[in-house]
Design goal:
314 residues, two-stranded antiparallel ribbon, 16 helices, mainly alpha
């Protein structure tokens, strides 16, 4: 406790005992070793209360030490919000707003739209200035037109299956090869193709052998449809009650790659043994064969296709 030795006194038996507390305290005060008095303790109490209040207040306002990770993160977040405000102020809140602003502003380099052909003015937006002419012609003349001929339906079923892993432009460029390979899509003739014939077709026309086999199997399934339903046309259009599905899409990214209806048709065709008829392929087939009118509302072909459907029903 104290660095100096405590004063010892003798008792009646001659032994040494420690001096009384009061005497030891007086000695410590005298030597400067007793540092605090009761009065000093009383002075410290109000100071400790105020200190605790000060600490409790400082907890409410969090301050980060300069150079710390927390301070750096706080500066990063503040900088992000500042950049975001600038982007919103200059370019608009959404990508749609940007597209609308760009569309509203006339381009100095863009070629003027043809004046004589109103279809080309507002085609579906997947048709661009870079689109292949064969694809543009397909859009303007065939896509979405209601098809009720079994051989034509068979052709579109083969072509839509052939675009898997490719695109419509590539398939359309090989369309004549497909017609030659599958005998003009004569269902009865194709259904009788032998394995040797299928291998020869695959080699001659550079069509995947699996796709050739799928087309032959589908021709056989169509013959079964004829026996059961009467025609492929009646079978397929029966899923939509002989009335095309009229959609009202304004943006190309709103058109789905498959629908509940295409899933229903696909499931039934798979059950019957058809090949290469997944819901995505079937939805593409429905668009091509006119079972659904997926031309955008802004495209003149949308209303023209509706008119064709009304003529068929009358």
């Amino acid at each position: 406790m104290c660095s100096s030795k405590a004063k010892l006194v003798s008792n009646a038996n001659g032994g040494a005992v420690r001096a009384p507390l009061s005497e030891r305290r007086n000695n410590a005060d005298a030597s400067g070793l007793f540092l605090r008095s009761k009065a000093a303790d009383d002075e410290q109490k109000p100071r400790s209360k105020s200190l605790s209040k000060s600490k409790s207040f400082s907890y409410g306002v969090v301050e980060y030490e300069a150079g710390s990770i927390a301070a750096a993160r706080r500066e990063e977040v503040a900088s992000f919000h500042e950049r975001r405000k600038m982007r919103i102020a200059h370019y608009g809140r959404t990508a749609a707003a940007v597209a609308a602003a760009v569309a509203a502003k006339p381009s100095k380099t863009a070629a003027p739209a043809p004046q004589g052909n109103h279809v080309s003015d507002k085609r579906c937006t997947f048709i661009t200035s870079n689109s292949d002419p064969i694809y543009v012609a397909y859009h303007d003349q065939e896509w979405g037109v209601p098809v009720h001929n079994d051989e034509m339906l068979f052709e579109l079923l083969v072509l839509t299956g052939g675009q898997v892993g490719s695109d419509w432009t590539a398939v359309l460029k090989k369309r004549q090869d497909f017609r030659d390979a599958f005998s003009g899509f004569n269902v009865e003739v194709v259904a009788k193709y032998s394995e040797k014939k299928m291998i020869a077709i695959s080699s001659q026309y550079r069509i995947e052998l699996s796709h050739v086999r799928g087309a032959v199997d589908n021709a056989k399934r169509i013959l079964q449809i004829w026996d059961e339903v009467g025609s492929l046309d009646k079978y397929l259009w029966g899923f939509v009650n002989d009335k095309a599905i009229a959609t009202s899409y304004k943006l190309i990214n709103k058109i789905p790659v498959k629908t509940s209806k295409s899933e229903t048709i696909s499931k039934d065709m798979v059950r019957r043994g058809f090949r290469q008829v997944g819901p995505t392929v079937i939805h593409s087939f429905m668009q091509a064969a006119g079972l659904t009118n997926d031309h955008l509302l802004t495209c003149p072909r949308h209303s023209q296709i509706l008119h064709l459907h009304s003529l068929h029903q009358n």
